[in-house]
């Protein structure tokens, strides 16, 4: 469907993940399980950190913030994908598309900044252990979390501000399952080459540089751990390894999506599913399964709930 005579697109049609009915049902049940598990896993982290006073430290407060962001991030795309998998016609209003993009980049930005703050927290804890409590005070930790959300908001506003002036007069069909800059930019009925380069530098280049910076930061942290010994060193290495895994899982798909020309490739949908739905599930799994302190706190919380039910 194409619109002309300067008429602005009012509705966008998604082609979705697949046109096959049986495969759609299979994907629906798989993604439903993933989404529900993501919500429960991240919610469990939020509740555990909130209820267990022994976890009221900067590292776990920052982890709770990341879990809140992951709940929001998965909820931006997953419910719409699940509904569309059971629908014949997969549509979204143009305003709804812009709204989805706004929150997608808002929470995506929060994730990036939160992972950076968590790297800073580990660096201070390992390089300046005697001053850690002073440097990463509760007030400063909350300020860094607020800055992460503010950074995500600014990033998202920039994305939407660059897209709004463009004329979208058709076509209005996207071969994807959610709205994002690379796909929507291709719907503009004007030359977007310069804007595409700007978007690649704003998103892709920054993501690549930021990823390399975080990898270098964690390399420095691991080198600092060589001078330590005992149980503290083992726990620190385990924590840093978990952080590196999460950073890699977040940034690699992000770089794939934004650090190249905005042309469709056969692997785009698989990467997008990993990026938008699977990644938020892996974060709580990685942080809880590798963290003995978190698992012990969850067991204590479970015992408290069981005892309160008996009373």
- Compute the number of helices: 10
Silhouette: globular
**Strand pairing plus helix content: what structural class?**
mainly alpha
Task: Give helix and strand order, one letter per element, not per position.
Answer: EHHEHHHEHHHHH
Question: Helix and strand layout, with pairings?
Answer:
Elements lengths: L10 E4 L6 H31 L6 H28 L5 E3 H34 L4 H4 L2 H26 L9 E2 L6 H5 L7 H32 L6 H28 L9 H22 L2 H19 L1
Parallel strand pairs: 1-3
Antiparallel strand pairs: 1-2
Helix pairs in contact: 1-2, 1-9, 1-10, 2-3, 2-5, 2-9, 3-5, 3-7, 3-8, 7-8, 8-9
Structural notes for this entry:
The chain has 311 residues and is mainly α. The chain is built from 10 helices and 3 strands. Strands 2-1-3 form a 3-stranded mixed beta sheet. The longest helix has 34 residues, at 94-127. The termini are far apart.
Q: Would you summarize the structure shown here?
A:
This protein is mostly helical and 311 residues long.
Fill in the keyword field for this structure.
single chain, 311 residues, mainly alpha, three-stranded mixed beta sheet, 10 helices, 3 strands, globular, disordered N terminus
